[in-house]
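User: Once you have settled down, look closely at the record that follows, taking as long as you need, and be ready to discuss the fold:
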Amino acid sequence: PARVHAIVLVSKLHKPTLRALAFAKAARPYMLEAVTVDVDRDESEALQAEWDARDIPVPLKRLASPYREITRPVVQYVRDIRRQSPRDVVMVYIPEYVVGHWWEHILHNQSALRLKGRLLFTPGVMVTSVPYQLISSQAAEERQDREERVAGQVRRGARKTSGDR
């Protein structure tokens, strides 16, 4: 590839987004921009205002979506970049939540999952998930560690030696 064009997907300006921006900057791409889909004009204008107020040194591009669709405008934008510069690689950074309960997947990451599925089959496009652990994911990990320790103690307790009698 001649150059790397990095895109960070933005829905809100929160910790997962800032983390994805930091990862993208650390990769030192030729071109870096943040992209949001304009499904609600008021929310997009508020995002733009907050982006400008925080003086984030990455341009924020707003993609129009007349039918409140997220996947199609992003895929089309990425394909347009590929058409303009076929030798460039487009790197798409997707901030994602790491959750601890199965039902939290319903609340988070659904549009990211659909988008990732579509972009993975686009030639010259690389998709990078940038994980952000929610507190519930840490609690789930601690719960799993406790269960493994308890299971190990039960196994050890079931085996009595001659000195235990």
Remarks:
- Confidence is low (pLDDT under 50) at residues 158-162.
- DSSP finds six helices and five strands in the chain.
- The two ends are 71 Å apart (CA to CA).
